Amino acid sequence: MTYGELKETETYINAKDIEINVNMEESIDEEYFYVDEFCLLDDLQVIGTANMADGTLHIDLICTNWNKRFEPDWIPESR
């Protein structure tokens, strides 16, 4: 499942808060990855989710070129 597909599920929609990690690194701010209403992370594969006791949905994504994310015109790749 991709992150974009996950965002259409009841689990995502009903979560009180969302926490996203890419490549098992610290949490990221999804808003940083929006370009013209399109989220660059939507095509990344979800490798795990967890529902936390406080209602937070924890999501782990995988990105094979994450180290290049600060380069101009970066497009994330998932495997």
Q: Biggest sheet, in brief?
A: 4 strands, mixed
Q: Which bin fits the share of residues in helices?
A: 10-25%
Number of contiguous helices: 2
E-strand count: 6
Q: In one word, what is the shape?
A: globular
Distance between the termini: 13 Å
Provide the β-strand percentage band: 25-35%
Low-confidence stretches: none
Secondary-structure element order, as H and E?
Answer: HHEEEEEE
Give the topology, please.
Layout: H1 3-6, H2 10-13, E1 17-22, E2 27-28, E3 34-35, E4 38-39, E5 45-51, E6 56-62
Parallel strand pairs: 1-6
Antiparallel strand pairs: 1-2, 3-4, 5-6
If you had to describe this structure to a student in words, what would you say it looks like?
The protein is mainly β and 79 residues long. It has helices spanning 3-6, 10-13; strands spanning 17-22, 27-28, 34-35, 38-39, 45-51, 56-62. It has a 4-stranded mixed sheet with strand order 2-1-6-5, with no helix packed on it. Strand 3 (34-35) and strand 4 form a beta hairpin. The mean pLDDT is 94.
